[in-house]
């Protein structure tokens, strides 16, 4: 999309309510385009960030496994912004660039551990069927507790929602993410 449908707000365009929501990100120099777009609706942004912070920072799923699911759903949804942002986060969480390159190939690609394959299968099933199938669920529950399985469903749901918003609003990829998008081939 050449021009954003809902443009990210510049600092001089922030209302008091938008600035209040965005201030922690401004203070940490991470007021990225996704947040600058979402604060066009400050009440929604504030409430969404509570849930998003649980998924990204308080989930019972290990960061590497969480990023595997997020990158896969970003790929399946065709969200370049989500992909680019989580390539960076995924590498920080322990995914290798080879693993990131395999994510687009899905759970049947060679090289996945059984848990990784199950996470990718669950993500694919949630995307296509809106439900984790019985075989995949059984495999996950052999390895994870109830809260981890719940967090996986909500992680995939959260990042499906974010991918839809990013693509619909036309949120531009931040300059610092352009290289990350190219790092693991986004050629779709």
Explain this structure.
The protein is an all-alpha fold. It folds into two domains: 11-57, no CATH class; 61-183, AhpD-like, CATH 1.20.1290.10. It has ten helices and no strands. The protein has helices spanning 16-27, 33-38, 42-58, 63-77, 80-92, 97-103, 114-129, 134-143, 146-169, 175-183. The relative contact order is 0.16. The model has no long low-confidence stretch (mean pLDDT 94).
Explain briefly what this protein structure is.
It is built from ten helices and no strands.
Low-confidence stretches: none
What is the gyration radius calculated from CA atoms?
17 Å
Order of helices and strands: HHHHHHHHHH
Mean pLDDT: 94
How many domains is the backbone divided into?
2
List the topology elements.
Layout: H1 16-27, H2 33-38, H3 42-58, H4 63-77, H5 80-92, H6 97-103, H7 114-129, H8 134-143, H9 146-169, H10 175-183
Helix pairs in contact: 3-9, 4-5, 4-7, 4-9, 5-10, 7-8, 7-9
Please name the defining characteristics of this protein.
188 residues; mainly alpha; AhpD-like; 2 domains; 69% helix; globular
């Amino acid at each position: 999309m050449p021009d954003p449908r809902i443009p990210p707000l510049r600092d001089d365009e922030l209302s008091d309510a938008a600035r209040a929501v965005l201030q922690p990100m401004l203070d940490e120099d991470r007021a990225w385009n996704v947040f600058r777009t979402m604060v066009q609706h400050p009440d929604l942004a504030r409430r969404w960030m509570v849930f998003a912070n649980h998924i990204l920072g308080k989930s019972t799923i290990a960061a590497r496994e969480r990023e595997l699911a997020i990158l896969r759903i970003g790929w399946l949804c065709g969200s370049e912004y989500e992909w680019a942002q989580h390539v960076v986060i995924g590498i920080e969480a322990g995914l290798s660039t080879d693993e990131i390159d395999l994510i687009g190939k899905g759970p049947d690609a060679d090289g996945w551990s059984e848990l990784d394959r199950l996470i990718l299968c669950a993500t694919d099933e949630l995307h296509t069927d809106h439900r984790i199938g019985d075989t995949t669920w059984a495999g996950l529950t052999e390895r994870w507790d109830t809260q981890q399985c719940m967090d996986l469903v909500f992680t995939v749901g959260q990042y499906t929602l974010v991918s839809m918003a990013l693509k619909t609003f036309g949120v531009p990829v931040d300059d610092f993410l352009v290289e990350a998008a190219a790092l693991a081939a986004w050629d779709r």
